[in-house]
Structure formats: structure tokens, C-alpha cells
Amino acid sequence: MRFLNKKVFLILIVFGLSYCGTKQNNQLDFPQEIAAVYSQKRNVENGQSLFGTDFFIEFVKPLEEGIFLQKVYFRNQETKVIKENSSVFVAHFYPMQANHDFILDSDSLKEYGNKAPIITQPKFELKSTEAVLEYKIKSKTFYYKIIGIKEKPIIVYPSRNKPKN
Question: Whole-angstrom Cα distance, residue 85 to residue 83?
């Protein structure tokens, strides 16, 4: 009986310590003051009627040395953050597109060659006005949740293929 109690206690300690090692570093405050965070839809420049979303982060002062913005998780997508200038960063989200055609038929045998879609779960459960910013300080990764993201009016680029009169 004592041997069983020691074994259970040891297993509980191992699970407890392993949980501490995988815990994400969620920050309540970003180490630098953020001036504005907003998203803005725009049409994709390849002439199609698909719309993408740009996600902007503007800082009051230029980003301090040693802080590196990695990714943004927004509306069940993730993408890298790109530096526009010393205090403005942007992330470009593109619409999901199917890579292949599906065969649809009333005879299910004709649909045999269709590949099943790959469904991945998002890393974070977020509302449409929330995002998570992944950043590094030195070599340690942190996550900062941004709430209350405003959406600015859409930018429509003129089409490259103009209609003939």
C-alpha cells in the first residue's frame, strides 16, 4: 500500500512539473506603449474580387532594441509581422483558397478522387475584435492579447484590366 501511494505521488509531481515547462508566457502589458491597432480590408492586387486584410500596429515611439515582433493571430489566421518603419508594423492576411477542384456528383463513386480538407484548430480562441501578438525579448517568446481592434474603411485598388468601351 505504501509503495502504491509513493508511486501515485511521484506521478502527480512529474505531471505538475511538466505542465510548468509548457506554459505560455501571456503578458498583460506590452513593454512599450502602443498608439493604435486597427485592421483594414483591401482587394488583393491580382485583379480578382477577393479581399485580404491588413493588420496595423503603431507605436508611440520607435520599437525598442531587443524586442522583435514575430506573428499576429487574428480571425483564426496567423501571419508574420513586417516592419514598415521604426514605429509602424503590418501583417497581411490573405483569403483562404482551395488548392484543387472537387468532383461533386449524385453518384458517390465518381467523387472517389476528392481529397479530404485539412482542418487545423486555431492556436487561440479569439473574438473578431481580438488578436494575439507573439514577440520575443532576447530569446524568450511572449504573447500579448490585443482587444478592441477597430476596422477602418476598405481600400479598393483600381483593377488592372479596365473594361473596353
Answer: 6
Report pLDDT digits (tens) over 111-139. 787 777 777 777 788 888 898 889 898 88
- The proportion of the chain whose per-residue pLDDT surpasses 90, expressed as a percent, equals 2
CA distance 8 to 49: 60
In angstroms, rounded to a whole number, what is the distance separating the alpha carbons of residues 118 and 98?
Answer: 11
Q: Could you tell me the three cell numbers for 65? A: 532594441
Q: Under 8 Å CB-to-CB from 120, ≥6 apart: which residues?
A: none
**Structure-block grid coordinates of residue 51:** 479581399
User: Which DSSP category does 9 fall into?
Assistant: H
> What is the phi/psi pair of residue 121, to 5°?
-80, 140
Q: Which of 40-44, 46-50, 78-82 has the highest mean pLDDT?
A: 78-82
Q: Are 110 and 103 in contact (CB under 8 A)?
A: yes
For residues 68 and 104, give the distance between their C-alpha atoms in angstroms, rounded to a whole number: 47
Task: Indicate the pTM of the whole model.
Answer: 0.66
Distances (CA, A) of 67 to 14, 29, 60: 34, 14, 15
